[in-house]
Write a structure and sequence with these properties.
Blueprint lengths: L1 H12 L8 H13 L3 H18 L4 H9 L4 H9 L15 E4 L12 H15 L1 H6 L7 E5 L6 H12 L3 E4 L1 H4 L6 H14 L4 E4 L16 H15 L6 E6 L7 H4 L4 E4 L5 H12 L5 H10 L5 H18 L3 H5 L11 H13 L4 H8 L3 H10 L1
């Protein structure tokens, strides 16, 4: 009793470091608990107990037992979630979700600097969630990825899931969309309820298919009601999960949907420099630097997926037909004038060393034979 009073007197006098306002912390915990934010309650409890251990050394041993002897709620949920059966459509018995328990992304994706900053900022929020919780805030719970196909939106969701050590749940539109009136909306509700109950990353790909504008006269009433369900789900998404929606057609989304997301990330087409980096990763050891620069210029305006597809097609053809990979890639239909003259001249020199005639070199590079002769004589 004497020891407790001495500590209490020091605490009241402010001589003990890290003084805690227990009443304020209790109110904060109650607010989080009543809002159903279990993960935030856990984070704040652990943070408060750690600080309390400094100001109440008489409780330090007991506090250490509490902290070290209990698994986190997210760890428990994750271990259980891996074994929970996925929801199914009651008529077709098809699973409504695709699950990746441990997503892996290799090699490291190439994105524009603005996209990478946004994605890494999301990770930083999660890493410092306890600081946000103490300030009465929560990490971003929902993000909308916008951009044409092939720019890495789905890959970004998988990358985030890997970095956050969360299972990736992806909505299977083919199973969810039903021809029976009312079934599509019911399936979506089942999916949302299932994902909310566990820490995960839920990906709603092709989001415009289920979140269309409610003023679209071509849509039936069921899908219009579904937008309201989605809005409510985004607003109430738990802080220990992350909801990611991706769309290729942002103009089709209902205006009210946009305001609900904590973040909106736009994916631009890659620059020539970014395509060059992608080519170096795909075939860097098989092409010279001038050829890589030229090919990246010819791919300008293409998506990452289109570049990868063309490269893989050329690689197969090179193996099966014994053709030169650099020649195959530089016979793209894109106008050769896109490449700088310096790159085209270096490319011409490389073709000349491979035994191509001046006529063939002129056709492939887009340079006139007069220009080729001039620079050949100067070389």
């Amino acid at each position: 009793m004497c020891h407790y009073k001495c500590v209490e007197n020091k605490r009241k006098s402010g001589t003990v470091a890290h003084k805690i306002d227990i009443e304020a912390q209790f109110v904060h915990l109650a607010r989080l608990a009543l809002a159903g934010r279990a993960n935030d309650v856990e984070l704040l409890s652990r943070k408060t107990l750690t600080r309390l251990s400094d100001s109440r050394p008489d409780l330090a041993n007991e506090i250490q037992k509490v902290l070290s002897g209990s698994a986190t709620a997210s760890e428990i949920a994750r271990s259980r979630g891996a074994n929970i059966a996925l929801p199914v459509d009651l008529d077709s018995r098809l699973e409504l979700l695709k699950r990746e328990a441990s997503p892996r992304v290799h090699p490291e994706p190439i994105w524009s600097p603005t996209v990478r900053v946004e994605l890494e900022s999301l990770l930083n929020e999660r890493a410092r969630a306890d600081e946000l919780t103490l300030a009465g805030l929560s990490p971003s719970r929902s993000v909308l990825l916008v951009g044409p196909p092939g720019l890495g939106k789905t890959l970004a969701a998988r990358w985030l899931a890997e970095k956050l050590s969360r299972p990736l749940l992806t909505l299977d539109l083919a199973s969810v969309m039903s021809s029976f009136l009312g079934k599509t909306g019911s399936n979506i509700r089942v999916v949302l309820d299932f994902a909310r109950r566990q820490p995960c990353l839920l990906l709603l790909d092709e989001f415009d298919a289920i979140a269309k504008r409610r003023d679209d006269t071509a849509e039936i009433g069921e899908l219009k009601r579904l937008v309201t369900v989605l809005i409510q789900a985004i607003d109430e998404w738990p802080a220990d999960g992350l909801l990611v929606a991706a769309t290729n057609h942002p103009e089709l989304l209902d205006p009210a949907i946009w305001r609900r997301f904590d973040r909106i990330i736009e994916f631009p087409f890659p620059t020539e420099e970014e395509i060059e980096r992608q080519l170096e990763g795909l075939i860097g050891d098989q092409l010279s630097q001038p050829t890589i620069r030229t090919v990246s210029t010819l791919f300008k305006g293409k998506s990452y997926a289109e570049v990868a597809r063309e490269v893989m097609r050329a690689k197969r053809q090179a193996v099966l037909n014994g053709e030169d990979l650099s020649v195959l890639l530089t016979t793209l239909s894109a106008p050769k004038e896109r490449a700088s003259q310096k790159n085209r001249l270096a490319w011409a020199q490389e073709l000349r060393s491979k035994g191509f005639s001046e006529r063939e070199i002129a056709q492939r590079t887009g340079l006139s034979r007069q220009t080729l002769s001039k620079y050949r004589d100067q070389a």
